[in-house]
Amino acid sequence: MPTANLGSYTVQYRHSEEYHHLKREIWGDHCYYTELANENPVIIDAGAHIGMSTLYFAKQFPTAKIIAIEPNPITRELLETNIWDNRLEDRVEVLAAALSDQAGSAQLHHLIAAEWQLNANLTATAWNDAPLTHSTQVETITLSSLLDQPVDLLKLDIEGAELTVLREARPHLSQVGELFVEFHPTNGNSVGELLKLLTEQGFSPTVWQKNKLVQDPSKVSGLSMVQAKRKYSF
Questions:
Q1: What's CA 3's distance to the chain center, in Å?
Q2: How many C-alpha atoms does 87 have within 13 Å on its Cβ side?
Q3: Closest residue by Cα to residue 72 from 30, 126, 24
Q4: Which contiguous run of DSSP H or E holds residue 200?
Q5: Residue 114: what pLDDT?
């Protein structure tokens, strides 16, 4: 298995191009950079993949408690390896499940292990309409079930399920201080609907594409990153 050094961490990965894409986005462009007031924050990393964002949060917030959610068994195996190899098992809890609007089980669609796994989701095609050729039954959980405590930072990279998941958790979003949501234009989703939901819940959202602030979100097409902070201190 290929291994790379990432700051003070070591990372195992399967697909070189995918690894370097994530490294550039998360560790190079710092797409998840933020500052939190809580010295011991609670962070939910949904769509943790092999742990690139989990490791980034662990470095940025050395005393954080992190819940890393990853349903894909192919990537979760590496996520767990990367957590153990870097001695983060006391700080990071891994949940083997997919976020959905109801608890139960569902088919997770993905590609074979030798290919990119970033597009794995609960529908048979990726956000860009690419077909996903394999499926695995996975457990599903709701976001609201995790919001029985204050969560300082919630990161969602869940391949088009973001609006469905946030709508289910709407009565509990007051527990969340800040969000990063990778928005996928699929299943009839619109970034406008996401911004409306977040604004109604007391957040002040901004939209980013290619590391640049979008001045007119109504013109957004393709993938985008939505960062939403509370209008008032959490």
A1: 23
A2: 2
A3: 126
A4: helix 191-200
A5: 47
Q: What is the pTM (predicted TM-score) of this model?
A: 0.91
Q: Provide CB contacts within 8 A for 35, sequence distance 6+.
A: none
Where residue 47 falls (left for φ over 0; alpha for ψ -120 to 50; beta otherwise) is: left
Q: What pLDDT sits at residue 122?
A: 56
Domain locations in the chain as residue ranges: 3-230
- Given CATH 3.40.50.150, say whether it is the number of domain 3-230: yes
206-213 long-range Cβ contacts below 8 angstroms, 24+ apart: 207/183, 208/31, 211/29, 211/31
| Distance from C-alpha of 86 to C-alpha of 76, rounded to nearest angstrom | 15
Please list the rounded mean pLDDT of every run of 10 residues in the chain (234 residues): 94 92 95 96 97 98 98 93 98 97 87 52 52 78 98 94 95 98 82 95 94 86 90 60
Beta pairing, strands 3-6 & 9-12? antiparallel
Tokens of residue 139, six digits: 């457990």
* Torsion (CA) 85, 16, 69, 65 in degrees, nearest 10: 40
- Asked whether 53 and 66 are in contact (CB, 8 A), the reply is no
Distance CA 77, CA 153 (A): 24
CA 15 to chain centre: 19
What local confidence, expressed as pLDDT, does residue 119 receive?
55
What DSSP element (H or E) covers 196? helix 191-200
pLDDT of residue 109: 75
